[in-house]
Amino acid sequence: MIFEVKPDVYKKSAQIAHIYGVQPGSARRPPCRAPKEEQERDSFRNLILLCLAHHVEVDDKKKGANLHPPELLFEWKRKHEGEHDKNPVRIRNPMTDELAVTI
User: Rounded distance, CA 61 to CA 66, Å?
Assistant: First the structure.
């Protein structure tokens, strides 16, 4: 995801993408029926990590939603994260030294 290109210089090779779009006009953005649905769009469940090229392709406003429907992206996420490892991951935030838990 992040690699060192030369000593102490790092480059990212991935971005976080929304499976259901958040911004009006974005790919895969159905209308929300309740305020809770709007909040869930920024939840971990609705996020997927993609390489830079796939993020651009998946979010393309003309073809992204047809070529990459939510069901496909959820499948990619499930396969990438592993369907059998349901244990939470604990990550320490170096800025606050607080412990965050992700599933």
Answer: 10
Task: For residues 70 and 76, give the distance between their C-alpha atoms in angstroms, rounded to a whole number.
Answer: 10
pLDDT digits (tens, 9 = 90+) for 3-47: 788 888 888 888 899 999 888 888 898 887 888 887 888 788 899
67: phi > 0 → left, psi -120 to 50 → alpha, else beta; which? alpha
Q: CA nearest 42: which of 56, 32, 53?
A: 32
84 pLDDT above the threshold of 60: no
CA dist 88 → 24, 34, 40, 85, 102 (Å): 32, 29, 19, 8, 5
Contact status, residue 92 vs residue 54, Cβ threshold 8 Å = no
